[in-house]
TrEMBL record:
GO molecular-function term, one example from the UniProt record: methyltransferase activity
Keyword Methyltransferase: yes
Single GO biological process annotation from the record: methylation
Protein name according to UniProt: Class I SAM-dependent methyltransferase
InterPro entries: SAM-dependent_MTases_sf, Thump-like
Pfam families recorded: Thump_like (PF18096)
Keywords annotated in UniProt: Methyltransferase, Transferase
Domain THUMP-like: 336-407
Length: 417
């Protein structure tokens, strides 16, 4: 979206039509024709349809607030999920004012995108001064924060922003390459942290000097890039690994790596929870297979679960655990559990024969440490119709195995029908 189209979109009558877009017939062609008949230009019509689509897509991240916001496709892709943004806000607000007073915490959001984190900061009582390098994105952020008097947005570079007087700094460096879009219109991700905007080196330098700071990054961040002075927290939400956040200064709770699992249940795991050794029993299969949450895997903290879940690793280099007892307690929030029904042969003809004999005709295929392509295996099996099961291709010690499993649901837990 360019500046001219955004200016037209921000017209009161156009925004009103966007809010009433569901009054129109369903389908883009029908809606486009109706909007053109009402007198909207082709450009504004396209913008209205795009915003309606993005609002629908944003509900999963932002809930009902999405219906009152504007977006760019890249902005929505990089936007924080609202519950995670609230967690960021709680961390920075808990760090308090640099002067120790009880006045509102002042946060400089340096790279605010469409404004979701700033929305959470201001919504929880902070005074927010936000900037974004893209003029259209900054204008959209200002629109999204219009009901929060404690928030201001300006167009500008993070490197040029005035941060004197800020109690906390928040960074979300741009990690997409402007001008290189895929078929859906989203731009390509940047892999090199020094090519982020602003660069990770610059961000860490500023964050380390602040009273409190947070830096939101992609979860694939190399552990070697984590400064010794920071806490690196990987976060998952409803099973999706969404970020790693570096916290500095008063926002840092414990140095080192941690993983936060957010969803119906919450679990926080820290590298201090990792046992000095977990060699006992590696490669001995139990009654249950445990698949750790992705945030725990990314943080390198799989073995932190072995003690609480009385579990052991299948293989020293594979992020699966096994246990003889059903997973219970707080740590169970950090795994997806499967009952192990049997160990099956790995060769396709023998595997197919076993599955057919058991009446299994549909399989979910999971893998770790196995050189297979699940879709290819599924085609090779050519199973007739039958019951559904989960196959796990992995290694037990040095041996390649196929585990026949079924999802485990703890007693008293509701299951989907």
């Amino acid at each position: 979206m360019d500046r001219t189209t955004l200016a037209e979109l921000l017209d009161v009558s156009v925004l009103d039509r966007l809010d009433r877009i569901d009054d129109l017939p369903t389908g883009d062609l029908a809606r486009s024709a109706a909007l053109r008949k009402e007198g909207f230009s082709a450009e504004v019509t396209a913008a209205l349809l795009t915003q309606a689509q993005l609002r629908t897509e944003a509900v999963g991240k932002l809930g009902p607030y999405a219906a009152e916001m504007l977006f760019t496709r890249d902005g929505l892709a990089q936007a924080t999920r609202l519950p995670v943004a609230a967690h960021h806000a709680q961390r920075l607000l808990a760090a308090g004012r640099a002067d120790g007073s009880d006045a509102p915490v002042r946060i400089a959001d340096l790279g605010c995108g469409i404004g979701v984190d700033a929305f959470a900061f201001a919504g929880l009582g902070a005074e927010v001064r936000a900037v974004d390098a893209d003029e259209v994105t900054a204008a959209i952020a200002a629109f999204n924060l219009r009901h929060l008097p404690g928030a201001e947005v300006a167009h500008g570079l993070a490197e040029d922003a005035e941060i004197d007087g800020a109690d906390a700094l928040w960074f979300d460096p741009a990690r997409r390459r402007v001008g290189r879009a895929n078929a859906r219109g989203a731009t390509a991700r940047i892999a090199d942290p020094d090519e982020f905007s602003p660069s990770l080196t610059w961000v860490v330098d500023r964050a380390a000097k602040a009273h409190a700071a947070g830096v939101k990054l992609g979860p694939a961040l190399d552990h070697d890039l984590i400064p010794a002075s920071a806490e690196a927290q990987w976060v998952s939400h409803d099973g999706d690994v969404v970020e790693v956040c570096l916290y500095f200064g008063a926002a840092r709770q414990r140095p080192g790596r941690s993983a936060l699992v957010m969803g119906e249940r919450t679990l926080l795991v820290h590298e201090d929870d990792v046992p000095a050794t977990d060699e006992d029993g590696i490669g001995r299969l139990g009654a249950y297979l445990l698949e750790p949450d992705g945030a725990i895997v990314r943080a390198g903290l799989v073995t932190a679960l072995t003690g609480p879940l009385q579990a052991r690793r299948l293989n020293p280099s594979i992020a699966y655990l096994t246990t003889d007892v059903a997973p219970t307690g707080p740590a169970a929030a950090g795994v997806t559990a499967y009952e192990i029904v049997d160990v099956l042969p790995a060769k396709i003809p023998s595997l197919r024969k076993e599955l057919i004999a058991r009446g299994i005709g549909s399989v979910v295929i999971k893998k770790r440490g196995a050189d297979i392509v699940p879709d290819q295996v599924r085609r090779q099996l050519k199973l007739p119709k039958g019951e559904r099961a989960t196959l796990v291709f992995t290694r037990l010690g040095d041996k390649h195995v196929v585990l026949l499993t079924q999802p485990f649901t703890a007693p008293g837990t509701a299951t989907e029908s």
